[in-house]
TrEMBL record:
Origin species: Amazona aestiva
Keywords: Lyase, Membrane, Nucleotide-binding, Transmembrane, Transmembrane helix
Protein name per its UniProtKB record: Adenylate cyclase type 2-like protein
GO function term, MF aspect, one: nucleotide binding
Cellular component, GO, one term: plasma membrane
Gene Ontology biological-process entries: adenylate cyclase-activating G protein-coupled receptor signaling pathway; adenylate cyclase-inhibiting G protein-coupled receptor signaling pathway; cAMP biosynthetic process
Residue intervals passing through the bilayer: 24-42
């Protein structure tokens, strides 16, 4: 069917479209091949970004756990050096300073 259509279309003006563009079967095959390769590349790219996102989430989770461990260790060490109510006051003051520092740095 495509051969007949191709012959009909280009029988009147054979020199208008040179080479491989005359054959519709070949052009269809090339188009499908390019489409298939594009889908493969996009699939691999999507898989790469999903894996990268997964690794970043795991890294963030581990870092967060390390931060919590260090905070707890600092609290225990501070409570060993100072009385508990003084250590709490000191730690609460540091937290308040960190929050106010963040508010000041984010102000326009």
């Amino acid at each position: 069917m495509l051969d007949d259509y191709s012959k009909f279309m280009y029988a009147m003006a054979p020199l208008r479209r040179p080479g491989i563009l005359k054959d519709l079967k070949t052009m269809g095959s090339i188009s499908l091949f390019i489409f298939f390769i594009t889908l493969l590349v996009l699939g691999r790219q999507n898989e790469y970004y999903c894996r990268l996102d997964f690794l970043w989430k795991n890294k963030f989770k581990k870092e967060r756990e390390e931060i919590e461990t260090m905070e707890n260790l600092n609290r225990v060490l501070l409570e060993n050096v100072l009385p508990a109510h003084v250590a709490e006051h000191f730690l609460a003051r540091n937290l308040k300073n960190e929050v106010s520092h963040l508010c000041i740095s984010s102000a326009p």
